[in-house]
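Protein 1 of 2
SEQ + STRUCT:
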Amino acid sequence: GAPFKIKTVENATDFVVYISAKGKFYINWGDGDEDVIERTDTNEQMYSHTYEIPGEYDIEMGGKATAYNNSNTVAAVSFRDNTNIKKISGSLGYIFSTLPNGGQPKFYYTFSGNTGLEGQIPPALFYGVNGTPAKNMFYATFSGATGLRGTIPAELFENIVGQPMEGIFYRTFENCTGLTEVPGNLFAGISGAPARDMFHSTFAGCTSIAEIPSGLFAGINGAPAQRMYNATFSGCTGLRGRIPEALFGVF
């Protein structure tokens, strides 16, 4: 089966995805049509599909990326502002994996503005992405996905290990108003000296999160960096109790 699956909302009429990675990919649109995409460059390109009959469709994606765009503001794959996504499952990271030479995909705005997206974030969503983080790697990845619910999976970033990079979790879960819990080991692999903007607005506007786990940033230590925790929990009006004493580690 396909490594990554999408269920559209009930009355979807069209679907848009942006890909910037080099490689061979396929998209089964769920209505009998399938596109095979052979990309020889890393320029961002929009791929769209129109459904003759509005409805709920099961889209499957597969393939393998072989090179990524070096820009810090281009995603390997993005469904930004796509309001026709209802559910996602499987691993997007299986298609857009860490390359043998260490090249990393960026999930810059990948699910940003997906207001129709419901349920929990799939635990294996970034399985296949491992090793040292990249700049802006998860910048605004789920920003504004207000239908996401429950706990952020503890294993979501588990294979991302090493030194923080600038903007790595900038606005990642911003305004995800339905998320209720942040696991204490969510960033367990990230360790070392702080980077600029690394947790800028990460959970800003997450009004349903009730508690900040004490060990959330346990691996971060060293000289402070600009805006490293700027607005990290800004607008988290559902927080209760005390802020953990050792939350921001040792500097």
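Protein 2 of 2
SEQ + STRUCT:
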Amino acid sequence: LLTEPNVIGARLDNFKKWKTSYVHAYRKRHKSFYEQLAQIQKQAETVAPRVRALAKLNGLAELGPPLTSSVTAATDLGAIEKQTTLCPDAAEAAVDGEAALCPKCRWTPATHALPSELLQRVQAATAAGLTDRLQRFKDAAIHGILQQGQEKGQRPDLATLLKVIQAADADKLGGVITDELIEFIRQLLQAQ
């Protein structure tokens, strides 16, 4: 440029055009990333009650050891929740002037990855863990103990749990399983 100062204007025009296309492409990828992240966040919120129910059921040592893949489901879900914080400027990042990155989140494709694989692992581990736990509840001996406890204690939540177990509906476990019910089941199983 020092030897040919007449091309400086053309180079500045090319740079301005490139900068405009960069800002457009950056905003588009930034918005797309956070839209995908919002979808992952919704899926994580959907699976969260099942993960909490699984964590409570895994605490029942009387049912036997939990599946190893299901032990870390709650921790992994917590990691997903931390990674799915949305940028306030997700729709249109303020990438004007000298700033080449979003000033709020500093998003780049290299530093921000979607936790979709982790979510899939949590969903699979939760499904397998709940299936295993429901199967153990369906075991004739345990099922008989729970029915005896329900008849003696007249606990409506235990009756609801027995219906959920018979239907094998893991989605309804989140609304039924409480710490108090887990403690009652633990006492029944230990008494037998």
